Amino acid sequence: MNWLHRLFNPHCEHCIELERDNKVCQSCETLRDEVAHLRNENRKLIESITAKPEPEEVRIQAPVPISPKRAVPWTVKKQMLEQQDREKARALANAAKPNARVDVEDLEKEMGVVEEMREAAKS
Asked: Does residue 107 sit within a domain?
């Protein structure tokens, strides 16, 4: 029915008034969007401020003992280094030495290679 009224009376006062009320200016829409955005940001800020902080993990490090710094005389330092070298030499001397000469026949016997080859040749 409304479309018939507009068709026969396109410039009536009532229609003009309704059209004015329905018009929304672009600046008003921009301001409404901006206000909504600001309200959202404020809500997030208030939530972050009022939120309970999470407990932080406390890491306890073992205290490092502080040794007194004394100047070690060169003769004592030299004796310590020589002693360490002697211990290293003893350890190397006592270490198991690999057999310098390994017989191939002994290795073949251990692995059974020759016996298998001989058995294969006989068959």
From this structure: no
**40-74 pLDDT per residue, tens:** 999 999 998 898 877 777 777 777 777 667 788 89
pLDDT in tens, 64-108: 777 667 788 899 999 999 999 999 998 888 876 665 566 777 777
Spatial contact of 2 and 11, defined as CB atoms under 8 Å apart: no
pTM, two decimals, is: 0.30
**Residue 15 near residue 5, CB atoms below 8 Å:** yes
**Long-range CB contacts for residues 4-12, cutoff 8 Å, separation at least 24:** none
Q: Structural domain of residue 38, as residue ranges? A: 2-50
Examine residue 46 and state whether it is found in any structural domain, yes or no.
Answer: yes
